[in-house]
Structure formats: structure tokens, C-alpha cells
Amino acid sequence: MNDTARLLRTLHRPGKPLLLANVYDAITARAVGSMPTCRVLATASYSIAAAAGLKDEDLDLATSLRAVVAIAAVARELGKPLTVDLQDGYGDRLDEAVQRTIHAGAVGINIEDADPAGNLYSIPEAAERVRQAMAVAIRNKLPDFVINARTDTMRHGGTLEDAIARGRAYLAAGAFNVFVWGGPQRSGLRRAEVEALTEAFEGRLNVMRSDMKAGELTLSDLAELGVARCSMGPYLQSVITGEVAKAAAEFIGT
């Protein structure tokens, strides 16, 4: 299994970003994972919550794991690495969440530095949670486990310098990549911000599609700036929902 984790690491190449079309159930996992251009399957907690009739902040570990187990089965069948959005790690259940996610078949996680209520952990607290998650992975003989550490500081009014300080602390604690989210309470990351973040993290930066669009950045721009990873988040689910409504309206009327 560590070979799969190592593969996931190697797919993060600054200047040639790993592109993740985030899925939320077995159907979307198979649709995305069957594409030759899909290298990795990745979940989006927001989408998993919405599919279960929940708000993102109300998604519980049990509901998340039900979706993850189904998606992991598809990932194994297709031979694709799986990385899972674990939100903040479910508070004091962090060890259990990481352990059960690994047991399901994931070789990477996304972990946030804000709890479901939107309260930011302090830098030492958040860094320790990254360290704790990595310790669980090592106990499971996954030294190449990929942690994508997300910081929400900029969407809570923090500065670019705050994001850099947090990201560097998370990398030092064992994260492999840093996800700096510029939305939704601000207008998204700008080119100069992406450039500064990429330089500070030596390319180990995740940018969200919504931040790209808000900042009018293209995938070519991200590659030029040396970004290693770009994800769609819940965007795919919104497209699917729109197409379902359109098809239904064509049949039953509006």
C-alpha cells in the first residue's frame, strides 16, 4: 500500500499540477476514475455531505466513511490512488478518522485547520494535528502517506503572510502539500498571491478551481507559477445536479 502512497507523491510535480476532479460516491468515482487522464481519485466532503442531505459542517465520520468505503472499492478496482477529504479530522476523533480512512484504502488525506464551526486552530494546535495524523499513517506502515494540509486563514481575514506561516508549520509537521483557500468570503486567490505561496512552499501548493476562476487564473498560469496540485472541490456535483434538473425538465416539464 505504501507503493501507492509513493505514487501519489510522485504525481505532485510543481509546474505540472496534479488535477483532481473530486467525487462523492461510487457512481462519480467510476465515471471519473475510468478516464485515462484521471491519475488519482479524490473526495470532497462538501459533496459527500450534500449527497447525504447534510450541510458540510454537519457531516459526521460515519457518514463520511460510508461514502469513502464505496469510493475506495472503485479505486482499488481501477488501480487508482485515493485521497480523502477529512475536514478537520473530526475533532478528538482524529486518530480514529485517519486509521479508518487508511483501512478503507486511502493513501492520502486533506485536513483543515478550522473546526466545523469555523474556528481556526492555533498554529501549534493545527501543526500537532498534522503530526498526529502522520503518526497514525506511519504506524500503518505508510511513511509516504500524503497529507494535504488546508488553511482557511485568508477566508477568515488573515493575511498572505499568515497563510505562509501556517503552511510552513504544517509542512514542517509532516504535511506533503498545502492547500490555501481564498474563498468563499473573499474574492479568491490572485496571481501574485499564488506566486508568493508557490515560492514559499517550493511548489507544494494546492489551488481550488473556484480560486482560479475568481482570480482569473488558468491551468497554464498555475503550471507556469510552479503549482503542484489543483482540485475541483464540489464543482463537479453542481454540474451533475444541473444536468439532472435539465434532463428531468425536458421529460416532465418545468
Quick structural gist:
The protein has 254 residues and is of the alpha/beta class.
CATH superfamily: Phosphoenolpyruvate-binding domains
Helix content: 40-55%
Q: Which structural class matches the secondary elements?
A: alpha/beta
Major sheet strand order: 1-8-7-6-5-4-3-2
Mean pLDDT level: 95
Mind telling me the C-alpha Rg?
17 Å
CATH architecture term: Alpha-Beta Barrel
Task: Name the descriptors.
single chain, 254 residues, alpha/beta, TIM Barrel, eight-stranded parallel beta sheet, 11 helices, 8 strands, Carboxyvinyl-carboxyphosphonate phosphorylmutase, ICL/PEPM, Pyrv_kinase-like_dom_sf
Architecture overview:
InterPro entries: ICL/PEPM, Pyrv/PenolPyrv_kinase-like_dom, Pyrv_kinase-like_dom_sf. It comes from Friedmanniomyces endolithicus. With 254 residues, the chain is of the alpha/beta class. The protein is 49% helix and 12% strand. It has 11 helices and 8 strands. The chain has an 8-stranded parallel beta sheet with strand order 1-8-7-6-5-4-3-2. Helix 6 runs parallel beside helix 7. The longest helix is centred in the first third of the chain and has 18 residues, at 61-78. The model has no long low-confidence stretch (mean pLDDT 95).
